[in-house]
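step: validate -> pass
step: tokenize input -> pass
step: predict -> running
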Amino acid sequence: MVIGDVQGKGLGAVRTAASILAAVRESAPVAARLETVGLRMSCALTRHNVGDRFVTAVLAELSDDGTISLLNYGHPAPLVLPAPGGITWAEPDRPGMPLGLDVLGHCRPGRHDRTLITGDRVLFHTDGLDEARDPAGHFYPSARAPDS
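step: predict -> pass
step: emit ->
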């Protein structure tokens, strides 16, 4: 699974998104490791990037034993809603650079692994969740303080 957010708007952003999605579709079915899919996405962005755009993304892989592996390229961390209740962030072990900016510094993505049990839910989202407000203009509590 992949979720991402392309910097910018317009046709350039659409082309960037298309090149990233093509890299995922091409590599995910045959890649032995999730990191390989991320590398292919980065290479595609380097080849097809118009206007020096960057992309934040989270790649996810769910194993048969319930282990979910997440690679985070500068994207908001998913929320995990455990079956017993509560909310936690699936924060990476270290910050990852967005795709397209990886040439500026450390280019390995952040990683998060955990085992899910029956009834656990994972919410993948963009920064729109952090910016969501109720009709009165207040931020939603689940987006700001998931541990409460």
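step: describe -> The chain has a mean pLDDT of 87.
step: cleanup -> pass
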